[in-house]
Amino acid sequence: MTPIHVHPTAPLAERVLLPGDPGRALRLAEALLEAPRMFNHNRGLWGYTGTAADGEPLTIQSTGMGGPSAAIVIAELHDLGARRLVRVGTCGALAPELAFGQLLVVSEAIGLDGTSRALGAGERIAAGAPLLDRLRAAAGSGAVAGPVVSTDLFYDGPAREEDTWRSLGALAVEMEAATLFALAARREFEAGAVLLVSDLLVPARRRIEADALLAAELELGAAALRALAV
Questions:
Q1: Which residues contact 50 (CB under 8 A, 6 or more apart)?
Q2: For 69-84, b where at least 16 C-beta lie within 10 A, e where not — what string?
Q3: Cβ distance 177 to 18 under 8 Å?
Q4: Rounded CA separation 227/230 (Å)
């Protein structure tokens, strides 16, 4: 099937990093790839392919914001030949012990979004075990692992929804992991997610400083690449 939204202008690697933000895709490509070539620029969803430090090809492709956009990009990447996909994104911390810039390896996504449900997933969707173990090892001793909530809304959600999410055991909230895991289960490819804490939501919302976010992005991408290099 010819992809409709992803228009490849360079080869696709079997292993792919999936940031939501096109700007993060560019920054990770500059940091992690030798001689990156633009893989996709259609619809502003920037993607790049190049050779990583381990000498093997790697694609870094942005998914946009939210499950519906991510589902389109991930499905088309899989149709084109991607087989190991890792989301590298940000999250809002619900657990008070989490700190700005800390890495969180997602063990399962609590799917409170519409896309994962439309794909037939249940409320809890586990990450693939082999890649999860590699991400835990690659993220280092300062990282944590645990469940996250995937939701459709960034703003204007129901009152006190953070309390509900915490009662479900979620350490953080984000928007795309449940979609990735649901598609991986449906299509039988390997998927994982490692996130950096960009926001602290409890007791009140606070945002990481811009310079700290940029530095943490590079650590995030490097950790994901180490997991894929095993």
A1: 29, 32, 33, 34, 35, 36, 37, 57, 58
A2: bbbbbbbbbbebebeb
A3: no
A4: 6
Q: In 10 A of CB 30, how many CB atoms?
A: 13
**Does residue 224 surpass a pLDDT of 90?**
yes
Place of tokens 């190991």: 84
The answer to whether the CB of 197 falls within 8 A of the CB of 205 is no
In angstroms, the CA 33 to CA 108 distance is 29
Closest by CA to 53, choosing from 227, 180, 225, is: 225
Query: What is the distance between the alpha carbons of residues 114 and 25, in angstroms, rounded to a whole number?
Result: 25
| Residues designated as active site | 199
pLDDT tens for each residue of 79-106: 999 999 999 999 999 999 999 999 999 9
Helix (H) and strand (E) counts in the chain: 7, 11
Distances (CA, A) of 117 to 21, 106, 114, 193, 213: 24, 18, 5, 19, 31
First to last CA, the chain: 31
Report the run of H or E that residue 89 belongs to, with start and end: strand 84-93
Pairing of strands 190-200, 144-150: unpaired
Within 13 Å of residue 128, how many CA atoms lie on the same side as its CB? 24
Q: Are 170 and 149 in contact (CB under 8 A)?
A: yes
> Cis bond leading into 147, ω under 30°?
no
pLDDT in tens, 160-181: 899 999 999 999 999 999 999 9
